[in-house]
Amino acid sequence: MTVPSLPSIGARRLIFLFFFLFGLIVARDWQDFTVAHVLYAVLSLTVVRMLPVALALIGTRMSSATVLFMGWFGPRGLASIVLGLVYLAHETHSPGEPTIRLAVMATVLLSIFAHGLSALPGTHLYAAQIATLDASAPERQSA
Fold it and tell me: Do 95 and 126 touch, CB atoms closer than 8 A?
């Protein structure tokens, strides 16, 4: 079994550049955020993302700790920025474009803080939960 390596220095710099540029855009548009944008971001990071993960894992016998962990720490960050930009590139000047742009920015910004602050304690809590599972649990099996 091979272990994936950490991103190269060049890849990390590119990721930092994307997040730096995203930060500049957020700083420019900060005053346009509304309660609705923030509420959407919260719903997007919880229900909108976690429910499909839970549904996809039905029948896998994964523990609720695993389902919750995968739902919370699933794809996020740079992928959201790129997908949001791809959508907006095709939908420029549409009536809902400013709302969509602000909703994407609020969601990514909240994700950066929420996932960043919860990564270490969440990982430790998940590891402790998995350690208590029976040896036959899917999480305890080698890939």
Answer: no
